[in-house]
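Quick log. Single chain, no ligands specified.
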Amino acid sequence: MNYATRVQRVEPSATLAVSNLAKELEAAGEDVVDLSVGEPDFDTPDHIKAAATEAMEAGETGYAPSNGIPELREAIAEKLQGDGMEYEADNVIVSPGAKQALFETFQTLVDEGDEVVLLDPAWVSYEAQAKIAGADLTRIDLRPHDFQLEPALDELADVVSDDTELLLVNSPNNPTGAVYSREAMNGVRDLAVDHDVTVIADEIYQHINYGPEHVSLSALEDMYERTVTINGFSKAYAMTGWRLGYLAAPEELIDQAGKVQSHSVSSAVNFVQHAGVTALEERGEETAEMVEAFENRRDLLLDLFDEHDVDVSHPEGAFYMMVPVDDDDKAWATNALEDAKVATVPGSAFGTPGYVRISYAASADRLEEGVERLVEADYL
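-> predicted structure:
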C-alpha cells in the first residue's frame, strides 16, 4: 500500500506509547508507578453521572445536532461570557473531546505550507495535527525563561510575521504547568493584531490553577475576531472518558469548522452533552477539592526533588512537572520504566529534549514511591 504523506509526517503519540508500555508491564505482573498519564485520578462527580443516566432514560440516545445540543451551547456561551468573552451559542461547536476541536481548527485554517508557531514545550498533538494539515512549524524555546512566555516575547516577535497563519498558546500549560502572565498575553495580542494572525487559545487546564490570574486571549481588546478558544470537560470535571470538548470562535469559522465535524465524527454523544450541561450549571466543590489535592501533590514533589538536589521549575497550574534528565531523554525514560518501573514521558516529545514530564495526577503515596524508585536506581 502507498501511505499518505500527511500520515507519514507524524509519529504516534509519545504519551500513549509510554502508557501502553506501562500497561504491558503491568499485565505481565509488574508494579509500575505510572506518572505518564494526563488524567485526573478522581471519579466523575455523581451528579454528572446521574444527569447522563437521566438523559438516557429520557431517550436522549439518538443523533444530536452536529454542532451540539442547544442547551449545552447556551451553557458554554454563558460560561465564556462569565470569563469576559463575547461568544454566543452560535459561536460554539461541541465536539467529542477538546482534541477533536483542535483537529477541526487546524483542518479549517491551515493549508499546505502555512506557518504555525508553537511555544516549546508544546503538547505532543499540536505538532502532529499541524503537520497533518500540511503546516510548516516554527518553534520558540521557553526553556531559557523557566518555561514562561513573557521573557520570550522579543523572540516571539522575531518570528511572527504577516506570513504566520496560526499561533498556539496553551495556559495553564501542558507539559510545564506554567501560567502565562497578563503582560505575556498582551504581548501575544499586540503581535496578533499587528500581523493579523489567528491565535488558538487552548484553555483546557483553566480551572487547574494554583493562584495566578488566568487570562483568556479572546477577552482582550481586538482579539475576539482572531481567536479560537478551545476548552472541555475532561480535566476540571474528571470526565476524560466522556469525550466532551468545544471550540468557540467567530461565526464564519464555526460555519467552516462545522463542515469538518459533520463529515467526520458527526457530533458528540447526545446524553453526554446533557451531562455537560449539568457539569456547567451545577458545579459543586469537586473541582476545588481536586485542585487542592493537585497543589498538595505538587508541593510534595517539589520538596522531594529539593531533598535530592534536583532543580525543577515551579508549576502554577495543570498537574505536570518537567524534570531535567540526561540529554537522551528517550533512553532515560525507557530505561527508567524498565529498571525502576516508573513511567514518565520524554521531553523530546514536547519539543524539549533533556527533560521528562511527570504527571502528579496520582496519589501522594505513589508519587513518593516513584521518586524513591528513581533515586534507588540512580536515575535522580
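Residues 63-282 form a domain with the Aspartate Aminotransferase; domain 2 fold (CATH 3.40.640.10).
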